[in-house]
Give the backbone structure.
Amino acid sequence: MTTRRIGIGEAIREAIAEEMQRDENVFLIGEDIGIPGGFGGAFGVYLGLPEKFGHERIIDTPISEKAIIGTSVGAALMGMRPIPDLQYSDFIFECMDEIVNQAAKMRYMSGGKLKVPLTLRCPVGTANRGAQHGQSPESYFIHVPGLKVVCPSDAYVAKGVMKSAIRDDDPVIVFEHKLLYGSKGRESAGGMDLTAEVPEEEYLFPIGKALKKRDGNSLTIISTHLTLYRCLAAAEDLKNEGIECEVIDPVSLLPLDTKTIYDSVNKTGKALIAHEDTFTGGWGAEVAALISQNCFSKLKAPVQRIAAYDVPLPVTPILEQTVVPSIERIKEKIIQLHKMELK
Amino acid sequence: MTTRRIGIGEAIREAIAEEMQRDENVFLIGEDIGIPGGFGGAFGVYLGLPEKFGHERIIDTPISEKAIIGTSVGAALMGMRPIPDLQYSDFIFECMDEIVNQAAKMRYMSGGKLKVPLTLRCPVGTANRGAQHGQSPESYFIHVPGLKVVCPSDAYVAKGVMKSAIRDDDPVIVFEHKLLYGSKGRESAGGMDLTAEVPEEEYLFPIGKALKKRDGNSLTIISTHLTLYRCLAAAEDLKNEGIECEVIDPVSLLPLDTKTIYDSVNKTGKALIAHEDTFTGGWGAEVAALISQNCFSKLKAPVQRIAAYDVPLPVTPILEQTVVPSIERIKEKIIQLHKMELK
Amino acid sequence: MVERSINLNNLDKELLISLFTDVIRLRKFEDKVYQLFLKGELPGTIHQYQGQEAVAVGVCTALNKTDWITSTHRPHGHAIAKGVSMRSAMAELYGKETGCCKGKGGSMHLGDPEVGMLPAIAIVAGGVSIVTGVGLAFKMKNTKQVAACFFGEGATNEGAFHEGLNLAAVQKLPIIYVCENNIYGASTAYNKTTLVENVADRVSSYGMASKIVDGMNVVEVYKAVKEARDAIANGSGPILIEAKTYRFAGHSRGDAKKYRTKEEEDYWRTLDPIDRMKDSLIENNLIDNETFALIVKNIQEEIDDAVVFAQQSPFPKVEDAFIDAYASDMSSPTEVQK
Amino acid sequence: MVERSINLNNLDKELLISLFTDVIRLRKFEDKVYQLFLKGELPGTIHQYQGQEAVAVGVCTALNKTDWITSTHRPHGHAIAKGVSMRSAMAELYGKETGCCKGKGGSMHLGDPEVGMLPAIAIVAGGVSIVTGVGLAFKMKNTKQVAACFFGEGATNEGAFHEGLNLAAVQKLPIIYVCENNIYGASTAYNKTTLVENVADRVSSYGMASKIVDGMNVVEVYKAVKEARDAIANGSGPILIEAKTYRFAGHSRGDAKKYRTKEEEDYWRTLDPIDRMKDSLIENNLIDNETFALIVKNIQEEIDDAVVFAQQSPFPKVEDAFIDAYASDMSSPTEVQK
Ligand SMILES: Cc1ncc(C[n+]2csc(CCOP(=O)(O)OP(=O)(O)O)c2C)c(N)n1
Ligand SMILES: Cc1ncc(C[n+]2csc(CCOP(=O)(O)OP(=O)(O)O)c2C)c(N)n1
Ligand SMILES: [Mg+2]
Ligand SMILES: [Mg+2]
């Protein structure tokens, strides 16, 4: 198997191109995605695709989020496999009805006679854009029965899970972190190498499978996106202090790979969930509740959570860095949890 | 202090009337709320108010949820105290941007120079209306920093907390259960008496305070709305079997009265959260995570959750009753939890 | 004031009789449903279609069998007109397993892919939001099919109406937007919700074609859609047809209709789509009272059969609640919750 | 093709000079901001206003000080024109505590209640959604104030535009909708997003008045708003003013503008609101080159002062992140999380 190193943006572009090649029902629809001389989507992921597949399959729309998702739902019901684009995930609130009341419920309401195979891409994460351009709203959607929610954090997973999402017969929302597209993370992302070995050959990464990113026996960390890299950096730093963190990337939040998570926590006896989405009602609450219930007798300390504090996002760097989980905050939490021995 | 027995609908009508009397900046806006010969809102709560306060302060709108909430946000920013109405909470997804990106963030974005005092009423709960008219979406909103979320379940609390919400300087969403408006619960609600002793004199019920509805030492149940009554019925039935349930009505989900909840769980060592909203990512997850973390050493068994199963709502009674928590299911869970002694 | 007598445009007899028959089928079905609802045999709530039958029948008869429709919270008439059998529609209203949505949808979500009808969407303008995708699929696959989207005048104040019609127009999608302007959205008169007199006036915002028709005249509705359909299927772009009509019943259960006048109701009653059509058919010697009686008798039998079928059908099994949320196999999200 | 020379409508000199001066102030401020941004002194992203200055200045000068405006993701010009000081605007762009939003809002949320400007809303058409409430409050309190809502032509395809304008019209709210039609929404030309040529054509859907003006002509914009304002304040109902304009810069950071032609850009450059106004003022002997030089010099000083002020201002304190989410005291939701 031959591989090469690429970044997430490239990986997703490849996934979409391969699936469009493979299935003529797959198409893209959204704002500024295919305009000649334009941006190829807010983050350039679609650059080059119009030349390959033409504007009949890469449909530029007015600024009309309800129409973009409504149209995608209707087309999916008719057997197409739309990949709608909303530029920033913050704009998803403009079309919540189409997602929550239509896409997620149509199949059930029809008594199982219909399906809604659409794949919605949503860039999340802070980048000094302020309260309306930096949210990580994935947690709302694990609360929507009928949807699937995935959060790829590296190029290998991103390509494989994007392809699985496109082929999935249910609506899937793919949340990607905007600071992780490049092959090299921005300063603000710690500038770490974000490329991964990606096979030339076709492969799929299944929805519902978690990945162990690091082995350890001291405690289990569950995290995604940029925060996952911060957790890995913290884990590396703390190795010297004798703290061996096991780090799990759940990849899929709905459905959740509980087995991988429980196995790890049952081994370590301690768990920390970390995400950039806000704290209260975040997906960390669901994971913490599940672990606390299902690993109860194995827990040596209470399950901990780190998340963005419960405030809208401030724009100025010093405040933004204060609000979202930093490597420093993660380290403190790990050390604190490591010291806890309540039984 | 003289009191009389009234139902929730009446209590809320009184609260609104009193606050409109007290503060000329309070007004109502929504669909079918004040039309002469109309319904007085989807559940008749506003009947009689137009005659008292006139149509300048009870504004009937087109079917335009974004405009209803957008207008409320703008008016609130200018010093008014709007009470928008969306008929069914299921339609709140039509105006999520106005709630999540505008109402909740405006104050913070302005550096604290502005405030958004609006009170949004949202009827929740199943009533054989199917997937788009029976949801209980309160859990989404505990995840929105900048909002407050309350769920009154009886007339006394409803009147007092509604008045507090209207006077509150932040956006508050008041979720009410549609089967609890009457003075007598519908069959489907178990037909129990839903009236409460409500003082003639003015009073407020603070946002952020929970209520203990029943004392017990065996375990703690935390629940709201119709499910709360089912929990109380279950608790009553199980008394004979020697199970003493302590039942807490959190009333306010954001902010949450953690002290009242922790005190009870630290005493009983066991907790069950029950709600009609769906399971995964529901508010029960947040409460379970908080209890599991903060009452860790006092817990005798894993915190349990009961909720609507993770499916859209089916319309036919037998399936609907299967999906939402029934008295039977609650009893089983209580007995199961009562038997657990993992340490 | 519209002309009461109907110009039959020398359409052939068979077609006229079938239009007439279907208008009666919708009326009688809805009357029966209302009786059953009052008797407490049907769960939930209902939104009745009496008065508007000419719209559903005119539109659906003019469409090809393979065309699709989207509907609203008031879908009974649309469903029967598009070809959902009275049996499966009635069974769905009873919440039975044999219903067109297996008892999961109910009154507000009637529909059946087999006859080209999506489950009705009870979110006002929800169908307007989705129908663009149905049309886009037809366009991309070049199937020459058309989608008809039913909605009320109240729905035209929703953002979905604006975004949907604009996208459909600019993409030249094969869609017929059918606005049933029955004057009221619940208790609210249209003229209290906008300064624009006709819904049709609003298409100028999208460069879309439009036509206003007498929605109590099944022939006029049929002709308008028939004329539009083929050009639209071939890419001429969408059209909005505004049918001026009236709902004889209340908005939903327990609506005393105090927000409208007796005079107004009486006026519209004179335009009852059944009586007008019947008179015109008789004037033109296309039916006599016997044939009429026979038509009604057959319809009664069809309805009685549907009721018996529905009553005798089983309810879904409790386990059915847990399937159909997802198409792809996925370890039931409900497992952990039991 | 618009007439390049500006008809000064013998407005009095002082007013003309102030209009001219403000157009330059906006231009120079934005030019400076761009330099600073490229130097990496400003965090995040910026959306530049060069080319459209005549719209913000014409509108805000015609409004009363006590009137309010709402803005967009491209708010720098609107803020300066409405009276936000360059110091507090620049400090906000630097993310400083002395900024008009204390460093919490930033470029896309500039605004200041003290001068009648809500924090700009970066959700396209978000301001259209909220301004109806501002107008409603003025109407209910009978304050005779007016609200002006700025938005781009791209925003007119959002549902919020439809719902907002319709409600404003039917409620006769004191609102001036100012559409800055700069032809593009990001990379997408308006004519690719709708079949309707002018945004102004769309008001027919709401029974609203409208006017199309040369958005590169500050006098014409000023006159249109001035004429409309008082009647609107007194309940004549809202108006939409479409200003035909052009953004000289890219949509946001790193936009190569490859989606538009050199010819188009050159044409619009000939309509530069500064040059046109300058020429007309000189033709009419209302300024000479010295006064012009002086005006520019004063503006440069104002800007330099603002930059120094911003640079020397402190950043917010870390603890500030936790305040301002709620007005009423509420045990900080972040406590448990620390
Ligand atoms: C988004 C949304 N808002 C409000 C409602 C509540 N509602 C149901 S039907 C209705 C009136 C609809 O009027 P119209 O579109 O004219 O259809 P009609 O009932 O007259 O057939 C309303 C307000 C809803 N179902 N969905
Ligand atoms: C609801 C929403 N959708 C998309 C975006 C991304 N976006 C920001 S500006 C812009 C273009 C806006 O065009 P226009 O309204 O004409 O304003 P202009 O940029 O030309 O001033 C887009 C699509 C957004 N901010 N909000
Ligand atoms: Mg209607
Ligand atoms: Mg523009």
